[in-house]
Amino acid sequence: MCNLYSNTTAVEAMRQMFDVLPSNVHLGNAEPLSAIWPKYQGHVVRLNSEGENELVSLSWGFRTTKTSKKTGKTLQPAAWNNARDDKLLKSGLWRSSFKERRCLIPATAFCEAKGRQPATYYWFGLTGEEKRPPFAFAGMWTLSRFEGAEGPQECPCFTMITTTANELVKPVHPERMPVILAPEDYEPWMKGTIEDAGSLLRPYPAEGMQVLKSGETEKADML
């Protein structure tokens, strides 16, 4: 499960990397995001109504209504920031988004924790000529509608998809890792059939990744 990632790629670099027209960049004066947590804003590449790539800012985690089991009072909504690859067509929370609203989540690193009190935090990234090469997670987006403390609310949001951990991630998180897509897979993920998209849900090759940093703090400024 991934609960923290970073995206320090400049807006113009993202625009070129994901083939987004200048008129379809809706990020304003976006700054690099060194630490993105659930319910925080993150950058997303999705298809607009004309079928073109657009860059937008959405909140991380599909929202659902959450109530207290003791009092029945409405609490802060739950945020579902990860979606298992084997649940996408089985769960009503994910099904329509997997079929109709797939997206790319730009990133430069993601964090996983090992152990407790204290935990050791590992930042993973790709190998390459750059210190932290940019990449994209496989994601989905939706407009979540839910009951909040003040009544009905809605939130444009996204989630990232996880799959089986590869050999680099497995010692830290034995079961899961985010799905990282290769550049040639961006278009099939966004525009392909369900079968096309499903075939891309696999662990990224361990030899193409590296541990960027580890330690007893999860702060992104370690990088």
Automatic annotation (TrEMBL):
Keywords: Covalent protein-DNA linkage, DNA damage, DNA-binding, Hydrolase, Lyase, Protease. The keyword Lyase applies. InterPro entries: SRAP, SRAP-like. This is Abasic site processing protein. PANTHER family: ABASIC SITE PROCESSING PROTEIN HMCES, DC12-RELATED. Its EC number is 3.4.-.-. It comes from the Bacteria. One of its GO terms (biological process) is proteolysis. Belongs to the SOS response-associated peptidase family. Gene3D superfamilies: SOS response associated peptidase-like (3.90.1680.10). GO terms for molecular function: lyase activity; peptidase activity; single-stranded DNA binding.
